[in-house]
Amino acid sequence: MAAKPSTTTTAKATYSPIDPTRKTRPPIFSGSDVDWLRPDSRGFHQCRPAFFRTGAVNSASGSAYAEFGNTKVIVSVFGPRESKKAMMYSNIGRLNCNVSYTTFATPIRGQGSDHKDFSSMLHKALEGAIILETFPKTTVDVFALVLESGG
Question: For residue range 55-95, what is the model confidence (pLDDT) as tens digits?
Fold first, then answer.
């Protein structure tokens, strides 16, 4: 009579997204917080209506017009183009960003005075996306004009 080989089963640990031993975090917002409306009468989970159109400025290398609710912006990109002769030679291209407001962009005149901060933020956001090493001795200019600032 032949002996049967013994079979032992070992339990393998598997990942389960629902772990009964794990404590759950309390929700960030309670049920009553979700019911409030924003000043522009949007609900808690609603996004602002958005509209985009490319090719807004014919003379630019690239441009776009964007609306987010009551905020309206035109962005134009010029370049890469050869840097001015007065600039020193550089193996890395140069990125210039400028954010400006129209005089009628905000309800109170002079409210758009923090354009230097926004120009710096735009520069920081784009410098990682534009590979300036591939454009030696060139300049890329990005101009954003805020037509209406709706928050």
Answer: 999 999 999 999 998 899 999 999 888 887 656 677 888 99
Cis peptide bond upstream of 80, omega within 30 = yes
Which whole-number Å values give the CA distances from 69 to 48, 88, 149, in the listed order? 5, 43, 10
Count of Cβ atoms closer than 10 Å to residue 53 Cβ: 11
Whose CA is closest to 151, among 105, 100, 116? 105
Between strands 94-101 and 62-68, the pairing is: unpaired
Query: Is position 41 within any domain?
Result: no
64-99 core/surface letters (b: 16 or more CB in 10 A; e: else): bbbbebebbbbbbbbbbeebeeeeeeeeebbbebbb
The model's pTM:
0.68
CA distance 120 to 95: 11
CA–CA distance from 76 to each of 16, 36, 61, 129 (Å)?
Answer: 49, 37, 8, 16
Find the domain containing 84 and state its range. Answer: 50-148
Number of domains the chain contains: 1
What is the helix (H) or strand (E) element at residue 139, kind and residue range?
A: strand 138-148
